[in-house]
């Protein structure tokens, strides 16, 4: 019985390692910053996820206790990864691209990154209700 | 009265859960301390959060989470395949404009985060008025299909949860 779990954990760790390597390789191989952004935000999610699931199974089966830290790590990755990607994308747009390289926003105003600071105004969103 | 003690009920619940996960043990002592922290932190930070999102349908969150996790796993394989087997010259990158029907900032934030975590797309920017998102696709032979998928698969679900 133990051996089944050992094989399962080892398999998860190997799969996670492969995804980690592919993510890092994508960083070298892809041609420019915007495409490079895709490799680490995706391929490594499963890399980290695999290690965390393996860790949870290990502690549950061999140490006999449920470990919840892995869920927290997943939560924090999901919160931080998109924001980092967004900031890198914005910085890149600012330095290397002009509004002409972008598609039209088809709305009243252009993309926020290129807006003139002097005319900054509140976005037109519904305000959440006050209690 | 209850509003005064718990200005942000969802935040209180979330803080209790996170504290219990951090402690990693189900003990009465840490649970009481979790309740203590989850009560005073929202009270002291309430001035920074004058408004709050309304969740119209909190249970639909779970369904949305399942869809997103499935898509993340799928996207990992797709992106890994593109990185390993597609020559750079064959990559068709594209910028896509996604018009938004969502109007609350929280819902738009969740949508933008979801787009970044799922198949070959990264949210790069929002239009100044908050009515459109700029999305970069790693490999999109048909950019319109990407836009339609985002609108039907994620945005429609978020509409049901938040608005």
Written description of the protein model:
The complex is a heterodimer of chains A (131) and B (163). Chain A has one domain. The longest helix of chain A is centred in the N-terminal third of the chain and has 28 residues, at 2-29. Chain A has four helices and no strands. By secondary structure, chain A is an all-alpha fold. Chain B has two domains: 2-48, no CATH class; 60-162, no CATH class. Chain B has six helices and three strands; from the N terminus they run ααααβαββα. In chain B, a hairpin with a 5-residue loop joins β2 (121-126) and β3. The longest helix of chain B is centred in the middle third of the chain and has 26 residues, at 60-85. Chain B starts with a helix and ends with a helix. At the A-B interface, α1, α3 and α4 of A face α2, α4, β1, α5 and β2 of B.
Structure in a nutshell:
The complex is a heterodimer of chains A (131) and B (163). Chain A is mainly α. Chain A contains 4 helices and no strands.
Q: What is the strand and helix layout of this fold?
A:
The complex is a heterodimer of chains A (131) and B (163).
Chain A: H1 2-29, H2 33-36, H3 38-62, H4 69-96
Chain B: H1 2-5, H2 9-23, H3 28-45, H4 60-85, E1 94-99, H5 105-117, E2 121-126, E3 132-137, H6 143-162
């Amino acid at each position: 019985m133990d051996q089944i779990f050992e094989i399962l954990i080892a398999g998860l760790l190997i799969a996670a390692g492969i995804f980690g390597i592919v993510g890092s390789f994508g960083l070298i191989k892809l041609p420019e910053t915007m495409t490079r952004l895709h490799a680490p935000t995706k391929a490594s999610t499963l890399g980290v996820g695999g290690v965390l699931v393996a860790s949870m199974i290990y502690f549950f089966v061999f140490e006999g206790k449920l470990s919840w830290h892995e869920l927290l790590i997943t939560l924090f990755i999901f919160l931080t990864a998109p924001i980092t990607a967004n900031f890198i994308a914005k910085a890149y747009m600012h330095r290397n691209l002009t509004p002409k390289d972008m598609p039209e926003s088809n709305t009243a105003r252009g993309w926020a990154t290129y807006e003139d600071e002097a005319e900054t105004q509140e976005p037109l969103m519904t305000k959440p209700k006050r209690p | 009265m209850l509003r005064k003690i718990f200005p942000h009920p969802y935040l209180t619940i979330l803080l209790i859960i996170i504290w219990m996960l951090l402690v990693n043990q189900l003990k009465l002592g840490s649970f009481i301390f979790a309740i203590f922290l989850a009560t005073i932190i929202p009270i002291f930070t309430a001035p920074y959060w004058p408004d709050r999102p309304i969740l119209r349908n909190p249970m639909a969150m779970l369904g949305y989470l399942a869809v997103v996790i499935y898509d993340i796993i799928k996207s990992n394989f797709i992106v890994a395949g593109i990185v390993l087997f597609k020559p750079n010259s064959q990559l068709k990158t594209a910028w896509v404009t996604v018009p938004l029907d969502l109007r609350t900032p929280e819902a738009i934030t969740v949508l933008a985060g979801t787009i970044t975590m799922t198949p070959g797309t990264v949210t790069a920017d929002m239009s100044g008025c908050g009515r459109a998102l700029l999305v970069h696709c790693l490999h999109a032979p048909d950019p319109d299909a990407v836009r339609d998928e985002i609108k039907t698969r994620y945005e429609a679900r978020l509409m049901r949860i938040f608005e």
